[in-house]
Structure formats: C-alpha cells, structure tokens
Amino acid sequence: MVRARSEERRADILRAALEVIAERGYRGATLGSVAERVGLTQQGLLHYYPTKEALLVAVLEERDRWDTSGGRDREGWRLDLLESLVEYNAMRPGIVQTFSALLGESVTDGHPAREFFTERYTQVRANMADVLRLEFGERLPGGLTPERAAPLLTAVMDGLQYQWLLDPASVDMPGAFRDFLRLLSGSGDRG
C-alpha cells in the first residue's frame, strides 16, 4: 500500500513537472513550483527526486515510456506504428511542447538533458534503421541504406513537431508524415 502511494505520488510529480516545464522551460521551472503544484514542500519533493536534474531525466524517461506503451517496445516498431505515434502526438501538445523545449535547450553545453538526448538519438537512429530494414530490406527505393535514411526519418518526425507546435492550424503533422512515408516508399499507395 505504501509502495503504491509512493508510485502514485511520483506519477503526480512527473505530471506536474511536465506542466511546469511546458509553461516555463527547464531553466525557468523550479523544484518549488513543481512541489507546490502537487501539494508538497520542496523538501518533500526532494524525497522523491533528490535534484532538479534527476527529475528532468525521470520526466524524459516517462515520456519515452508513454510512447512505447501498449506492448510496443522500440524493437517492435513498424512504419504504420510510427504513423500512429505521430497521430497520438498530435493529440497531446503539452507533452510534445515539453519534449521539444527540453530537446532545444539540451544542445547547450552543460545542460543536464544533453547526455540523455545524445544517447536517445543514438538508439532512435538504430531503431529507425531497423524499422526501415523491416519495411524495405537493405535498400530503400531511392537507393539509400536504412542507416543513411534513419536520421532523415527521425529529423522529419521531430521537425514536424516543431512546425506543428508553432502553427498547428497550418501544419497537418500526421498528414505530412504520411506524405513523407510515400516519398520514402517511392509510391503513392500509402494513405
């Protein structure tokens, strides 16, 4: 019972941290503002997450867990599941905004999420190469290998998120991603 309450409290803290970071950015978010949002003192919050950096990494890991929930692990992705992920992201702008803000901030030297994102992108590119290999074999219709196309696929997914966040009325993120998949496949048969 105590463990369940502790896990529930951790989940509440992560949700609050996502909200605060989305509103203020990582640098503008304080442990005190997160603690206040969940009805804790800052000292109480430190019981669950001993540093702001530990909380940030937990937020990023939780976001990735949400993306791989439903029995899909990263090794089980297919192009149609990537389409579903893009559609899912279009329904949760706050999460996408938080991720994008943290990603943008993480390129600066000394940012606590830099290592997380560097490792994450190494893994994502490898996973995207596997997805492309499963779909197309060792060469895509345009002649690229899955390893050469994987950074492009990743860049399109993340770049569309930024464009959509800035102008959601003009950017159909799921539709644009489907269009990109048609370009990858060299055909017009995808939805």
From TrEMBL:
Sorted alphabetically, the keyword list is:
DNA-binding, Repressor, Transcription, Transcription regulation
Q: Which domain of life is it from?
A: Bacteria
Q: Which residues bind DNA?
A: 30-49
Question: Has the keyword Protein biosynthesis been applied to this entry?
Answer: no
* Positions of the HTH tetR-type domain: 7-67
Is the Repressor keyword given for this protein? yes
Tell me which Pfam families the record gives.
TetR_C_6, TetR_N
Stated name of the protein = TetR/AcrR family transcriptional regulator
